[in-house]
Amino acid sequence: MFGKYLLIAAYLGFAASSLNVTSGPSADGVPRLDLASLESGYHGLVKENETLVEVTPRIKAIGAEICSFRIVNKHHGEAPFEIVLKPGGEAELRARKALNCEKRKNYKFDIAAVSCNGDVSDNATVHISVVDINEYAPTFLDPSYVCQVDEGRLYEEIVRVEATDRDCTPKYGDVCKYEILTSDQPFTIDNEGAIRNTEPLDYERSHNHILSVVAYDCGMKQSVPVMVTIKVNRICKLGWK
């Protein structure tokens, strides 16, 4: 009977020992990044006008007392980031300068945790995407537009204006709409910038029409207006002398 109790006690002691090893710092005190797998790494988002990177999953190291994190490998040159140690072995990632999505959209680098006795964890890769903000308004390719049409006709397209946007993503970098600001004019413009008349033009009524046109990006940021001048040609009619 006594031997049976010894066996049970030994089993319980082994189980407790195993539990302590898996739940606390590693037996050898070597830090490790708290990731499901090192291959999955981290993924972060940072806006152009902010410095704090939203990282998933959070950056945390376990297995030892952590004194710092470091960037250990820059895959594509510059990595303008720093890792700030927080309590409990956690860290936050910050940009060291303003980022520009129009110049560079993505960054990739490796990080590691460093314990207070100098041991370094295995590396994990961080993938950063720079989130575009609507910095720029559309600008027209030409400073103004001038064209001529004959009176008395309906045109499918009289002139086409075009604007572009310097922002780096389709949401803010694509032009989604054009608008004629000048009221009471017999013209319309579509989302591709094509202008047409909605009724036949009359030379006697107006020799030319001057339109103020603007473009909008897909975030509805408006351009500076561009001037479109449409000159009306008089058509000779039978019976004139």
UniProtKB/TrEMBL annotation:
Keyword Transmembrane appears in the UniProt entry: yes
Endpoints of the signal sequence: 1-17
Pfam families (UniProt xref): Cadherin
Superkingdom, taxonomy of origin: Eukaryota
Limits of the Cadherin domain: 69-140, 141-230
Gene Ontology molecular functions: calcium ion binding
Compartments, record wording: Postsynaptic cell membrane
GO cellular-component term (any): postsynaptic membrane
Keywords: Calcium, Cell adhesion, Cell membrane, Glycoprotein, Membrane, Postsynaptic cell membrane, Repeat, Signal, Synapse, Transmembrane, Transmembrane helix
Membrane topology, record value: Single-pass type I membrane protein
Annotated PROSITE patterns: CADHERIN_2 (PS50268)
KW Repeat (keyword) present: yes
Chief location bin: membrane
GO biological process: homophilic cell adhesion via plasma membrane adhesion molecules; positive regulation of synapse assembly; positive regulation of synaptic transmission
Family the entry assigns: Belongs to the calsyntenin family.
PANTHER family linked to this entry: CALSYNTENIN (PTHR14139), CALSYNTENIN-1 (PTHR14139:SF2)
Protein's name in the database: Cadherin domain-containing protein
Organism from which the protein derives: Diploptera punctata (Pacific beetle cockroach)
Organism ancestry: Eukaryota, Metazoa, Ecdysozoa, Arthropoda, Hexapoda
